[in-house]
Design brief:
Blueprint lengths: L4 H6 L7 E4 L3 E5 L9 E5 L11 H22 L3 E5 L15 E6 L16 H12 L2
Antiparallel strand pairs: 1-2, 2-3, 3-5, 4-5
């Protein structure tokens, strides 16, 4: 896409701190990181979100994330990591180009990538299930 900043970064038209690249993906350090080493897996082709990206490209993105995460664990000595992928503005997606966050986690890093659990009844869960998969 002509006006997509992530397309331009993935194509190398805009400089980035690239930590991995192959024919299909570029992995860059996030300019506003949650923690040291926070990176983004960017497909070089444009897909707005999870609903547009082909399944094989999505699978390849996960493989790239696993490879980079292993390097981060080794080189940054992180205690864990989060993989985060947002779809749509309501879910926190700010750039409408599919990207996968790799967020190294460190003990006492002050980040809270969590949600407040709710308590639906068994009936509510069954109704949701029926809505998704059919009664």
């Amino acid at each position: 896409m002509e006006n997509c900043i992530f397309c331009k970064i993935a194509a190398g038209e805009i400089p980035s701190n690239t930590i991995y690249e192959d024919d299909s993906f570029r992995v860059i350090l996030d300019l506003g990181p949650a923690t040291k080493g926070h990176a983004l897996v960017l497909p070089k082709n444009h897909y707005a979100d999870l609903f547009e990206i082909p399944e094989d490209v999505l699978a390849d993105a996960a493989k790239v994330a696993k490879k980079v995460a292993g390097t981060m664990k080794d080189k940054l000595s992180c205690d864990g990591l989060n993989l985060v992928q947002n779809n749509g503005e309501t879910a926190g997606q700010t750039v409408m180009h599919f990207h996968l966050h790799i967020i190294p986690r460190y003990k006492d890093d002050g980040q809270h990538i969590l949600w407040k659990p709710t308590s639906p009844s068994a009936e509510e869960l069954a109704a949701i299930k029926d809505t998704i998969v059919g009664a």
